[in-house]
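Can't paste images in this forum, so I'm doing it all in text. The chain is below; anyone willing to post the predicted structure tokens underneath?
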Amino acid sequence: MNGVDKKRKDRDENGQKLFGEFPETTKEEWKEQILKDLRGQDFEKLNWKPYEGFTVNPFYTAQDVEHFDYLANSTASKNPFIKNTETKDNDWKVSVAISKGDIKLANEAAKKSLRAGADSLTFICEINGNVISGVPIQNKNEFAELLADIPIGKIPIHFRCGSTCSMGILSLFINEAKERSIDANNLTGSLDTDPLRTLELNGSFDSSESDVFSELASLMLYLSDNMPKFKGLKIHGNQFHESGASITQELAFAMSSGAEYLDKLTSRGLTVDQISKHTSLSFSIGSNYFMEIAKLRAARLLWRNIIGAFKPKDEASKETSIETETCLWNKTSYDPHVNLLRGTVEAMAASIGGSDFITVLPLDSTFKPPDDFSSRIAINTHLILKNEAYLDRVIDASSGSYYIETLTYLLACKSWSLFQEIEKLGGMMEALRLGFIQNEIEKVRLDREANVATRKETLLGANQYPNLKEKLNGSIGSPQKSERLKKSGKKITPSNRNSMEFLLNFLYKDSSHIGDIAPRSQKKRGVKLKTLQPYRGAEEFEDMRLASEIHAEESGKSPAVFLLPIGSLAIRTARASFSANFFGCAGFNVIENAGFDSPDQGVDAALESGSKIVVICGSDEDYRQVAPAISKKLKAKNPQARVVIAGNPRDHIRELTESGINDFIHIRSNALQQLRDYQKHCGIQGR
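Text version of the structure:
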């Protein structure tokens, strides 16, 4: 059911009306009931305005989705443009990313993942300039060692190798398959070739613009002729997401990249059918659950429109494979087990949205290489969603949800409008050169950063509800291993580097290395552009807290905050709890107290603690009556004391400030800015 086809929306397969005993409820009646429940409060306050640039209403009905043309006369099983490519169920591949810096360990990790339930592998071997990061596979023998005892002809194998040497990595893969007598026609998986992503992150291509797209055309032509099940071009939205973009921007920029590739490759002789069948889309999935479900559905609608504009001969060319990975943006290094919950929500959204391949990042990915526990739990997340929640059983389970259908439509429309704006500028590359893409993302990024800093947007364990006993310093593992590319010294001409036939023969030799085919000249990369800057929302809070940890280790004393509760038990307890949470986010040692018999007793205890920051916790009226005297006595004996009020007593702020109160902390505070100031007051150097 999709909730739209008037012939079917309220009837079963026999034509009998469903729930006929219940009277129909109009949209106006729903709103009338809501207004009644609000008891005079403004209905508009229930509207939500996300980063995506449109308003989300508190409820939707069939009336809201009747005009959505993509839903007309469609059912979940017959609408390939909003669901995944499965026709019988909603199954997806359990993909695991392997980045071990030792080939033998990478092989063991891959085999262990397969035994644990994975059925798709991604090897991270990113080549950037003269450096390879992750699994350092550089020649035929190392490739054989990496893939030993892995059934490469039966499961998808993906290589996250960048665009520099993707044809070389593919050549090594094909040669290994030949050694095992596996027909290349049966190999499945992908490369993550995406030169525009390289441009966005590095500011320039790996070589000249002409060479980059000529190599991509050669790769796609080879796949079209020889490897029908393998993807060569991967259009990423991940870098936009991780740089702070809205979902609208993520979709629009990914689609603009796709249109740019279609234009460049068709001008080099490939057909849209050849290109589309060897192209996949890749997105990061955040924890905005319903919006992320709608994102993947909207992506398929948008891709259909773009492919349709290039007049494919095969209708199946409008379909696409989507790969997803739980995002890094909202993950935290402190309280990392919360990442398990985030990853589960994100994997659910990806599966219901129709992702074909899903990678759940291990919960400790932000601060160290994953261990056996975190790797196993990441795989188990998939297995629970499949075997206990049965999310793999129902095709397009969100179809018919008025809310999700509306989000799908709004995202598609808003993204399409932004896509058209980019096309008017001359396409994705020109928009990047003009700085349009970067500036648009920067606007949303600044909003996100402000919301995290003021804690309007919660990152549990980082800017809210920290585990005060947790320490991170000492738990941080070594970064992903990198090493220089090996080279035999053999000279490779640009035409040979562009020939799969040559590369297959060249890299079959034991003495040849991937480094031999890496572009040698750095002179023709074109203009340097402003780059995207992927980051995590929690980074600034985590850096601040880690600075407190390091200061404590080096000085032998943790920076302390003394809570001085006064007055009403209920109010002082609530504000003391707020204060402990507030200062805990920066790693301060919060000295909590149940209460004192008198303000003087509290002042004496505060002075004895040696704390440079004292927070008075009570009611607004208590502050007016008692806080000035407390501040005066504290500063008489400790002029360096910073006296803070927990709350926002608007009617008394001027009076309290004049009496010596330094600051006020409350729910509207810019926590990041104030906490940095308090650290500076305590002599803590920021990281």
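The first strand starts at residue 93 and ends at 98. Confidence is low (pLDDT under 50) at residues 1-8.
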